[in-house]
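Summary for the steering committee. One of the milestones for this cycle was to obtain a three-dimensional model of the protein with S-adenosylmethionine bound, which we needed before selecting residues for the alanine scan. The sequence and ligand used are listed below.
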Amino acid sequence: MAIDATRWNSIRYTIWAPIYDLVARRLDRGRRHAHLLAGVKPGERVLLDGAGTGLDLELLPHDAIITAIDITPSMIERLRDRARRLGVDVDARVGDGQALSFADESFDVVMLHLIVAVIPDPVACLREAERVLRPGGRVSIFDKFVADGETASRLRRLANVVTSAAATDITRSLGPIVASTSLRVMRDEAAAFGGLFRAVVAEKANQKP
Ligand SMILES: C[S@@+](CC[C@H](N)C(=O)[O-])C[C@H]1O[C@@H](n2cnc3c(N)ncnc32)[C@H](O)[C@@H]1O
């Protein structure tokens, strides 16, 4: 029986989980940049979508109201351990970013850090983020993208054969994904590795058009 892409993500990130922090810590500066742009305020309701081991927790205001989901149970276990160590209260559960189990307009901020290039259906992921955001709420995206209007080089496509099997796609462009929603990009800045990683904030309109 073939394994679908979502199940495969759970399997491969179970393998990554024990060493995930060692690798992802190299992106700390870029992550801080993304948090600076997102500017989460005390008391805001934040969803960490594809939350991993919870490296975002230490960068959020202490009294933010935090929910975290991830498709990989061992990531959620590690996130809970981190939350305990930090003394942070988090509602952490296993869940699929392509079909969130939350009501419309439940959050002020949705953080999509290092997941848009990983999740099998990034359009569904963005649409779901938009759905659960309150009007005027924002999505923080931090990931690696091909610049909008450019196509991935041959070398990059070749490297993608390996990276997409192991962990992540490196050939996605963010523009067409955001364009499939009504979100409006407010900030878009190079965040790490010479602009390979970008920090983007997109806002949900305050009123329905
Ligand atoms: C590269 S890690 C990023 C983790 C974390 N957001 C960070 O910034 O360190 C990608 C995470 O996405 C999760 N993931 C993959 N597919 C998912 C899905 N369909 N729904 C929710 N999480 C998913 C993986 O389990 C993994 O923890």
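Key point for the committee: The two ends are 45 Å apart (CA to CA).
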